[in-house]
Amino acid sequence: MRMRPTLTWTxxxxxxxxxxxxxxxxxxxxxxxxxxxxxxGMSTESxxxxxxxxxxxxxxxxxxxxxDFTTSASARRRYWARSHLGWRTFGRARPNxxxxxxxxxxxxxxxxxxxxxxxxxxxxxxxxxxxxxxHGSLGRVVCLSCGASGSRRELALRLEAANAGFExxxxxxxxxxxxxxxxxxxxxxxxxxxxxxxxxxxPDVVFFGETxxxxxxAYCRELVGAATSLLVLGSSLTVMSGLRFVRQAAQAGKPVLxxxxxxxxxxxxxxxxxxxxxxxxxTALADRLDIPLDV
Length: 295
Prior knowledge:
Number of helices: 10
Number of strands: 9
Shape: elongated
Helix content: 25-40%
Structural class: alpha/beta
Largest sheet: 6 strands, parallel
Radius of gyration: 19 Å
């Protein structure tokens, strides 16, 4: 399916209010077989903003679309200038307590897997294994012509050399690592081609308007089918890329539990939504289950 830059979601029905009781989540974890689905809210405590929460970047910024990136050289220049600047901050982000708790749950054998909508690699940095990156990873780049894949850190070094003195001050950072810059600040930023064939380089992430690879979606559906329950962490579930797994779990009679401060598009399918901060909630759950967090 193609992702669209959905700016808002408004409930069309009365939804069950959220709770501050994480007990049902603790019960699900104790039972084991929990599949985690995480969103941008998972990483806000690591300094990476979300899209739709309070102060979310979609209030001021529309993400780059696949169509614009592939058809417009000026759009690519704008993207790479902003993304290059944003990478300096994004690439320094470190896992927070929530990431460490998820990793600890996995190490204890309570999870059947982790699907993340995030592109920051923080689940893996915290120690989670076999993480499915639904929307790819900002740490990789891929050539749209020859398919060659490379390291974002290596490209960052090349861009630094090609754009000496590029030091604008950004107005903000977005969840995709894209910094807010004006066209004047972007200027004549030099975009680099693939070193293998000279083709167009793109971060190995699913842009809005781009199709999530079908085989990745199919694998995620298999994970949902094999799970005992689905635990959503920090996602508004506004776009279908994540919501479809919530619907699948609910239709199969599997409990859906959500930890998110704000209402989500999946609330009607959930047995509970805990409206508490993720880091403190997951840390408290780890304490409750007597699971130490790696630090």
